[in-house]
Amino acid sequence: MLEDIPENQLTDRIINAAIExxxxxxxxxxxxxYEAALALELDWRGFKCQRQVPVQVTYKGVDIGEAEHPxxxxxxxxxxxxxxxxxxxxxxxxxxxxxxLTYLKMTxxxxxxxxxxxxxxxxxxxxxxFNETREEYRAxxxxxxxxxxxxxxxxxxxxxx
Length: 161
Description:
By secondary structure, the protein is of the alpha+beta class. Helices cover 46% and strands 22% of the residues. It has 2 domains: 124 residues, Trna Endonuclease, Chain: A, domain 1 (3-Layer(aba) Sandwich), CATH 3.40.1350; 30 residues, no CATH class. A 5-stranded mixed β-sheet has the order 1-4-5-6-7, with helices on both faces. A two-stranded antiparallel ribbon has the order 2-3.
């Protein structure tokens, strides 16, 4: 298990491992193959990585998860980052992001990655997903990309004018 590192560094390292998997295997295989290879690559790099982590589904405090077919997170890295592996040549990215965000909310985790290994390059298939309030989003942008925060604030001012 790695020492506590900032989420952005952790996600960068996971992305680097995914790029290695994609360079080695290429697109065209099943999702489960990429999931297994990424878990192995992360393990070799010293990460604690769990596969097929069950997620409890509740509705207004009542467990409604299906016992025989529970929802599962593909990978949970360092008990911090939810990773959803996909293997489609194109499309459905908003749906995958929504699924990842739902898993983040259900588990109380803050950051997730959608990795679509079906794209020609891994860079095209990576999406970061955040479970955060508007204020948390602004604070993160202020830390990570002040110029982006400035643009967001300008767009909001323009929308309210």
